[in-house]
Every structure is written in structure tokens, then in C-alpha cells.
Design a protein that fits this description.
single chain; 240 residues; mainly alpha
């Protein structure tokens, strides 16, 4: 590893620790409820994928921070160490979160070429980061119209929020990330293709969130979204 790699790792862990401190501070000092502080940490952690793209140039090193938090988040969940993140009612969703990010970046991020598929991974993660978080917050606050799929109880308001938020996130990632300084080796796409792909992917990600048992949406949503994008992009490559 180079000095830059060590610096990147140090910044990543400082950032992660800061998120936990901020979340715990909000809970203890301002009496913010854990369901909100958990989502603050959730969104902050998800957005760090852009920090990873900036700081690291080898995927094997870049996935280390998220990979180590698979074990750390399990310990936090098992022993309820961070009250802002895990309560007695919490699921192991934070563990699934770290697993999904590690898997997607490990499989798709190739900054040294020949073709970088990081936008697929990032789009899937953003669907989880923003779509899942806002679905939970809006569904809990405004969800008056419930529906149930198996053991999963959701609200139509939350599902609409999931679709809208994930659509915006996926659209922006597919439009702006490929060919940028963060992913210069990724294939760029036309606006029309991005729009169509966004609608299809966000729809299936919303369905995945709706049917996923408590907490497992942090695994199902990003993997389904990224899987759909990968399949659609194979068709794009084949046609062009």
C-alpha cells in the first residue's frame, strides 16, 4: 500500500467515527429519536462511496473500510453499543448495509480498467442510501395507507417516497458519474437511455424494498438495483 492509501484509510475511519459521534450527540444532547439518528448515519455512510472514489485508486484497498464495518456493525448491533444506531427493536440492517457496499464495489469497481462499472454499484447504493432512508422516514411519519406482502408491512406513502428518491439518485448517478473524474473509464449513456433505465430500476428496487423482511432491504435493494442495471447495460453494450 502507498502513503496515499494509508491516508485514505485514516480519513475513512475518521469520517465513520465522526458519523457515529454526531448521531450519538444528536440522541443524547438534543433528544433526537434513534429512528432518525439511525437514518442520519445511514445516509452519511452511503454517501461516503464518493469519498472512496476520490481517495482510492485500487479497489482492493478502497473496499477495506466498508468491509471492516461488516464485523464492527455486527458487534455494535449484537451488544447495542451505539444507541443512535441500534436499539432493542433494531434489525441487523447496518451489517447488511456494509455487506452490500463491499460486494458491489468489490465486483464492479475497476478504476484501473479496462472498463469501470462503478456507476452501477454507486447507483444501487444510492437507491438504498436515499430511497430506503426516505421511505422509512416518510412512511413512519405520514404513512396512513398500509399494505402487507408476506410478513412485510409497508405504506403506500413510504413506497412512493422510495420510488421518487431512488429515481432521482439513480438518474443523477448514471447521468453524471460515468466519464467524470471519479469514474473516467465508465461508459457514458444518452439522456433517453438513462431516463428509461432509471424508471425500470427504481420500480424494481421499490418492489424489492416492499417485500423485504425487516432490515434485509439494506441487502436486497442495492443488489436488485445494481443487478437490474448490469443486465440493462449488457443489452446496451450488445446493441452498440
Amino acid at each position: 500500500m502507498t502513503n496515499n492509501d494509508f491516508i485514505g484509510l485514516a480519513i475513512s475511519y475518521i469520517y465513520a467515527t465522526s458519523l457515529l459521534v454526531i448521531g450519538e450527540g444528536l440522541r443524547r444532547l438534543f433528544d433526537v429519536k434513534p429512528d432518525l439518528t439511525r437514518k442520519v448515519i445511514h445516509i452519511g455512510a452511503g454517501m461516503w462511496v464518493f469519498g472512496v472514489l476520490i481517495l482510492f485508486h485500487h479497489w482492493e484497498i478502497g473496499i477495506i473500510p466498508f468491509a471492516t464495518f461488516i464485523g464492527l456493525n455486527y458487534l455494535f448491533y449484537r451488544y447495542r453499543i451505539i444507541g443512535a444506531m441500534d436499539t432493542e427493536e433494531s434489525s441487523p440492517g447496518t451489517v447488511y448495509f456494509a455487506i452490500s457496499v463491499t460486494l458491489l464495489f468489490g465486483l464492479l469497481w475497476r478504476p484501473d480498467g479496462p472498463l469501470d462499472s462503478a456507476p452501477i454499484a454507486v447507483a444501487g447504493i444510492m437507491a438504498m442510501t436515499w430511497g430506503d432512508a426516505l421511505a422509512a422516514l416518510i412512511g413512519r411519519r405520514f404513512g396512513q395507507h398500509k399494505y402487507q406482502v408476506g410478513n412485510s408491512v409497508r405504506s403506500w406513502e413510504g413506497s412512493v417516497a422510495m420510488f421518487v428518491a431512488s429515481s432521482v439518485a439513480i438518474f443523477l448517478v448514471l447521468l453524471l458519474l460515468p466519464g467524470s473524474s471519479l469514474s473516467p473509464l465508465a461508459k457514458t449513456f444518452s439522456l433517453g437511455w438513462v431516463l428509461l433505465t432509471t424508471v425500470i430500476t427504481a420500480t424494481l428496487a421499490t418492489l424489492a424494498e416492499a417485500v423485504s423482511p425487516h432490515g434485509t432491504d439494506n441487502l436486497s435493494v442495492p443488489l436488485v438495483a445494481a443487478g437490474v442495471l448490469w443486465i440493462l447495460m449488457q443489452g446496451f453494450y450488445f446493441n452498440f
